[in-house]
Amino acid sequence: MEIKIERMDHLGNGIGYLDGKITFVPKTVPGDIVDIKITKEHSHFLRGSVQKIIRPSENRAEAFCPFYANCGGCLLQNLSYAASLTYKKNKVADLLSKVKEDLTYEMVANPKCQNYRNKITLKVKNGQIGYYAVASNDLVKITSCAIASPQINAVLPELSKLNIKDGEIVIRTNQAKECLIIISSKEKIRWEPLLNIPTLKGIIINDALVWGQDYLMEKINELTFKINYRSFFQVNSAVAALLFQKVAASIKPNSQVLDLYSGVGTLALSVAGKAKAVLGIEIVADAVTNALENAKLNKINNVTFKTGPVEQLIKNIPSCYDTWIVDPPRKGLDEITHQAILKYKPQQIIYVSCDPQTLQRDLNLLKNSYDFSQVTLFDMFSYTYHVESLVVLTRK
Ligand SMILES: C[S@@+](CC[C@H](N)C(=O)[O-])C[C@H]1O[C@@H](n2cnc3c(N)ncnc32)[C@H](O)[C@@H]1O
């Protein structure tokens, strides 16, 4: 069935209409005219898959990954990079225009939009290693990943020597090209073949270190970070560096900063030079241990960290913090944290978000008490539909 793709949804699927019914077609681009097979018929919508491209959109690009046709990993490869940035900007602007009309947007592009990821999570099913297909749990076997770092790609072929039938494998790397391999599986794993990987620093199986070390070191801007395999770290070190610089530039000199969801201390340590004092709060104990070590390592002594859920610790923090950095997981801020903002009334909130939808919800709750005009977008996750946003809010 022939369909013209008119726009894209927030998950990167093309949208067209068949007999007036909204039809989602993955891996299509606005302007494409395609022949599709209907794969799902719902009373309110249809889903289709492309059989043939009848006339390609002028924004269509050739995918650069040999697994793109089947893999669900990075759906936007058939958009030109410039068009993918426009798509992301429009997607965030559509959402946030419902909160405030006069916002301006700046997009920070990825200096290296392929081979940028320092971490990937692979599924293993029936002895095959790969990613899931689009919107399914069917495994697509891969032997390389075009958005993963060259170091990850060097490790990928070695993984088949593990002979795992089912499980999950995470590879983490740093800019020094070292790697950790983290395996979860119910099977007995013979990990010794991995020792042939010259840059291997550690092997972790079912949450236990079996060889080497359980952390990597990473240098971002002028700071060095120790990162345990359980600790969060931004997946794109080059764009993370630009984000950290922007957060530091947004802080007022001598401010007292609360860094909520502080991870291994990246933002707290990035702003420490300008701030009077910084307190970070983070739920993962290993990340807090790293953050305290990272403060020492970088000879920064006006920063401290506490372990625990923000929603608990926030109830009893001193009232001196005039600047709050919030960098929550995708679910955004919870009700207790919103209440704490209204109670403590920080002068400035620097909101770093990896989910525009929860950012929209949270800004809506804050807009009566805070002014904001600029949204900075960071293309942290190139060729996927994800985008990182930063908004600086000033108390009215
Ligand atoms: C998006 S990451 C940001 C980390 C850090 N700002 C960075 O840039 O590396 C979110 C962090 O929040 C932590 N986290 C998740 N839920 C939390 C909670 N309820 N309380 C405190 N920290 C939490 C995660 O462990 C993770 O380190």
CATH superfamily of the largest domain: Vaccinia Virus protein VP39
Give the amount of beta strand, in percent: 25-35%
How far the N terminus sits from the C terminus, by CA atoms, comes to 54 Å
**Beta strand count:** 24
Q: How many independent structural domains? A: 3
Task: Specify the overall morphology.
Answer: globular
Each distinct ligand = S-adenosylmethionine
Structural class: alpha/beta
According to CATH, what is the topology of the largest domain? Rossmann fold
Average pLDDT metric:
96
Broad CATH class of the largest domain: Alpha Beta
**Total DSSP helices:** 8
Unreliable stretches covering 5 or more consecutive residues: none
Radius of gyration, taken over Cα atoms and rounded to an integer in Å: 22 Å
Write a concise keyword list for the protein shown above.
single chain; alpha/beta; Rossmann fold; OB fold (Dihydrolipoamide Acetyltransferase, E2P); 3 domains; 7-stranded mixed sheet; 8 helices; globular; binds S-adenosylmethionine
Detail the topology: elements first, then pairings.
Elements lengths: L1 E3 L2 E2 L5 E5 L2 E5 L7 E9 L3 E11 L25 H16 L7 E5 L10 E7 L2 E5 L6 E3 L8 H6 L11 E7 L5 E6 L15 E6 L2 E5 L2 E6 L2 E6 L8 H14 L5 E5 L5 H6 L5 E6 L2 H13 L5 E5 L2 H4 L9 E4 L8 H10 L3 E6 L2 H11 L3 E2 L2 E5 L9 E8 L1
Parallel strand pairs: 4-6, 7-23, 12-13, 17-18, 17-20, 18-19, 20-21
Antiparallel strand pairs: 1-5, 2-3, 3-4, 5-6, 8-9, 8-11, 9-10, 11-12, 13-14, 15-16, 21-24, 22-24, 23-24
